Amino acid sequence: MLTTDRKTTADEAAAPDRAPLLEFRNVRIVYDNAIEAIRDVSIAVPEGGIVALLGSNGAGKSTLLKAMSGILYTEEGEIESGAIRFQNEDVHHLSPDALVRRGLVQVPEGRRVFPALTIDENLQMGGYTRTAAEARERRDKVFALFPRLFERRDQIAGYMSGGEQQMLAIGRALMTDPVLLALDEPSLGLAPLIIDRIYEIIIRLRDEMKMTVLLVEQNAQRALDIADYGYILETGRVVLDGTARKLTANEDVQEFYLGVSATGRKSLRDVKHYKRRKRWLS
Hints:
Elements: E1 22-31, E2 35-45, E3 50-54, H1 61-69, E4 77-86, E5 89-90, H2 96-102, E6 104-107, H3 119-126, H4 132-145, H5 147-151, H6 162-174, E7 180-184, H7 192-207, E8 212-217, H8 220-226, E9 229-234, E10 237-243, H9 244-249, H10 251-256, E11 260-261, E12 264-265, H11 268-275
Parallel strand pairs: 3-8, 3-9, 6-7, 7-8
Antiparallel strand pairs: 1-2, 1-4, 4-5, 9-10, 11-12
Helix pairs in contact: 3-6
């Protein structure tokens, strides 16, 4: 069984071993009082960094974000044990709007913009927790970050491309002035050039706006290219964690998630075959 050597090297200095901004503590989540989706998961997200949460479909990544955002109840989910702490306070009992007001904001998978509203109206909806003056200031910052949205601010959101809708979804979340921004599969269904643009924005959020980002991705290579630290989930539990550099260098991660081995890059079919014999699940 594969084990990790957490907090033991100088390379781990940037790892979430100091007081975290967001922390999942031994969280167990069940659906319909019967189906265990998350099993004893502990994850720490330090302030001012990008933490990647990686794993295949069904690993439990989105479930953790739903728990963090207070929307598990919409799918009959419940935190059965453990705690979620944000800024040193337990928050898993709070409502979604209370979490947003505290600065814990999620961009959901699939973008989910308001299709019948214009870009400008979508942004106004995102700024509902702010005063009119604050909302105008935040909107100016969003337009500076996404000039394309400014150019099309009067366009109906439902007629935008997938990449533009993803920009709008991120911009709408930024209207709340988040302390921590959680992004659920931001590259899903987008062309490579658009993904490049989205990831450039994520880097700017960290480096220029000093924002903390929790990045949920299936595209491990993309996520590890920009993350400071990462966790890998399989069947509802953390099987590996470490700095992005350490995970990228790990032979198992290369083999099972990056499609690379000593014999060269594998095809997707090969990767799926190798996933059946992951050593950390033996």
